Amino acid sequence: MIAVLFRLAWTNLRRDRVAQVMTFVLPIGFFSIFALVFGGSGGNGSTPRVHVLVVDESRTETSAGLVRMLSEEDGLLVQAKARPANATPRDSAVTLTRERAEALVRAGEAPVALVLPAGIDTSLLRYDRRGEKALVLTDAADPIAARMVTGLLQRATLRLSRHAAAEFGGAPDTGSVDEMLPARVETRTVVGEKRTSPMIAFYAAGIAVMFLMFSASAAGGALIEETESGTLERVLGSRVGMTGLLAAKWLYITWLGVLQITVMFVWGMLVFRLPLLSHLPGFALMTAATAACVAAFGLVLGTFARTRAQLQGVANLVILSLSAVGGSMFPRFLMSETLQKLSLVGFNAWALDGYRKVFWFELPVAALWPQLLALVLFTVAFLALARQLARRWEVA
Amino acid sequence: MTALHIEDARKRFGAVEALRGLSFELRAGEMLALLGPNGAGKTTLVRALAGRVKLDGGRLALFGRDLAPGSARPELGVVPQELALYPLLTAGENLGVFGALHGLSGERLRARVAWALEWTGLGDRAKESVKHFSGGMKRRLNLACGVLHEPRVVLLDEPTVGVDPQSREKLYDMLAALRAAGAAVLVTTHYLEEAEARCERIVVMDHGRAVAQGTLAELVAVAGLPARRLTLHLERAAAAAPAGFSLGPDGTALTASVTDVAGELPALLERVRGAGLAVRDLDVRAASLQAAFLALTGKELRE
């Protein structure tokens, strides 16, 4: 009897392609994507590198040597030039200043900046707590970047002054470990320094967008339920056309999404002191654009899938993959450069970037235009695709 | 006056030819049954009339106006075979939604919803979720949602499937009320006794075309069936059938076709008695729609 039931279950699986995909292909897909995001790149040259802005105010042979050695580090992406603040597209990049570097860190263009002030070359390898300090300007969201730059600066200093370091052997006159290092460094947090719970802003947006995608796909899947129950046929037989039907569903799912994100952020504000009220305009814009985009995405899933089982499988694969790559589970700035660029093919990465600009970098609303534009374009593309896919429900 | 005119309707889905030149008419105010085995093309026709299937050829006209695919057809009410209702909505809310989708609003919508609740006998359940309704209640509501906008022609695809005899009676009473109000009704069904008892005319479809149409008597004649069938039940099994009779498989029943029962019966009984056979009982049956249907469409199973 047990053998009969076992065989029955196995036969059902063998004849259900969707179940086979869910059982065997889906786990492989997830494994590959998560391995790619969380497990490094397998030595293909796209190892995560820390993007560091370097300002050489000293302009001496020693400081130039330090910059050169830092540039040779595999773990760093050194940028010494940038376009001015109000540059036109024709303006070329100029050497970074301290103010420009700090502004760029504040804007989220790089997680860390290193300033080598005038006189830094005279303070290297002194070990007497005197002389100029190198200044590391950092974003609190990425604590690893500052520590890495600091460590590599020490190594560069030692390498630059190999002979002097070799001669050093006496006991330092201080108990501070910092004073045993060859370069004096001061680290100053310029972004997120006053945040009580720095990562809340990241994860509130990340989790909200991920679950928004799930609820949008479920709402889009109502089309499948309506097909099965016959109500879709009945609705389409009335005065409502497919375009009107999709428009109504899109507006509803958008409204639902706005509510869902708002509830999430209000909870974050009440429980985790997320500064929602002081960022309302940016929040409202990002939430409206994100909800509209996710709603259109949900319609694509709903019109693509033929059955509930298909929808569930496809939605799980696509949403969890987008969430992993787009930064809902793991900050994008900690991913490899390749993956960071690749993740921009997903609309959720743009949405998270926008929320990050609002809550973390506290940029003005005008700075959100690239993210808002991207979300609008994604929305239009998704709606067009959903309309095309929905043709199968129209006149046969 | 012709309410619905179907002429040479043709539709193919890939290798399957669902409609192959179907033609018939629905007259204003009549109730017409559309019968046919599974796969005969009934649902395809209903969907084409509802504007959900585009014909490859032929003509559909509603009160003389040609129906183009996707065109508005407010004179038409379609009641699908599925219970196309929103289960989490109440009966009143379902009616309100479908009424609004058919263009009703304001006071007229409220009045029609009130009428529908009364008509379906669901007035006291108006505020209950449909998911708690019995099959019969859902069927009645399903019907009401399709006629809220007072269509002059109502198409019903298997309206009584899966409901008990009491609910069927109620549904046909509701349809009778629609007809009394002037609507023409086209109903597809597998329940032949319903078609026989409730409809003035019947169209028998098979393989995408109408193989016969008319009243029951006309269908019986077209099928070549006798008007009456006489069956004599014998006391003992006979070895052979007397002239004009057929012998049943176990030899205890003789059957014969009769047109004039009173005139032909004495002679037939005399012939049996002359053959030395004793009659225990007899019955005379009129030709049924079932017999006509099987004669017209054959006994071969349809997939």
UniProtKB/TrEMBL annotation, chain A:
GO terms for cellular component: plasma membrane. GO terms for molecular function: ABC-type transporter activity. InterPro entries: ABC-2_transporter_component, ABC2_TM, ABC2_TM_bact-type. Keywords: Cell membrane, Membrane, Transmembrane, Transmembrane helix, Transport. The chain crosses the membrane at residues 21-40, 200-224, 245-270, 282-302, 314-334, 368-386. Residues 134-393 form the ABC transmembrane type-2 domain. The keyword Transmembrane applies. It is a multi-pass membrane protein. It is found in: Cell membrane. Belongs to the ABC-2 integral membrane protein family. PANTHER family: MEMBRANE COMPONENT OF ABC TRANSPORTER YHHJ-RELATED, TRANSPORT PERMEASE PROTEIN. This is ABC transporter permease. It comes from Eiseniibacteriota bacterium.
UniProtKB/TrEMBL annotation, chain B:
Keywords: ATP-binding, Nucleotide-binding. Coiled coil: none annotated. GO terms for molecular function: ATP binding; ATP hydrolysis activity. It comes from the Bacteria. Pfam families: ABC_tran (PF00005). Residues 4-232 form the ABC transporter domain. This is ABC transporter ATP-binding protein. It comes from Eiseniibacteriota bacterium.
